[in-house]
Amino acid sequence: MTDSCKAHVNIPLQQIQQEVKRLLSRNNILKAPVPVFLIANNDGISIREAPTAANVSGALVRSGPAVFIAVNSVHHTNRQRFTVAHELAHYYLGHLNSDLHVDDDFTIKKRDERSSLAIDSNEIAANQFAAELLMPVDFIITDAAEIMPIDQEKARRLARKYQVSEQAMTIRLSNLGFLPPA
Predict the structure, then answer these.
(1) What does the DSSP assignment read for 57-76?
(2) Nearest to 46 by CA among 74, 20, 84
(3) What is the pTM of this model?
(4) Which residues pair with 106 in a beta bridge?
């Protein structure tokens, strides 16, 4: 994908999955947990942690050629990892020029309460991308097959292994058919 403007375009899940597979392959990532901070750094995107308002998780910031992800340092580590994955989605899916605050050549894509409301197609795609990146389907299938049948305790163990919340892992396992719908 490019970082050209793609204002509110519905991106098929299959395309998101392909982009994530490409990223994992290019970064030689073969197992969980996926090192999202390393992926960002490998592409020249620095991570800057700082405390912010509780309702702000992070932001993707571009100033000229410089790109960085700001992350709320007060949030739990799992939440920070999701925020980085979400902001990477905006970068890799080319969302930088849509629905942004722009001040001269300074662009910010912020992750906040609106991001999780499922009303903005870019935010929906970024959340799907983050879930795919943190819990790649191939990794989940391999790990789940080794511990079948899956119950809540095994889902908790997988959440710890993948460094995601129990809720995120439960939803992922449910979406993949390893747990009944939540």
Answers:
(1) EEEEEEETTEEEEEEETTS-
(2) 84
(3) 0.82
(4) 63, 103
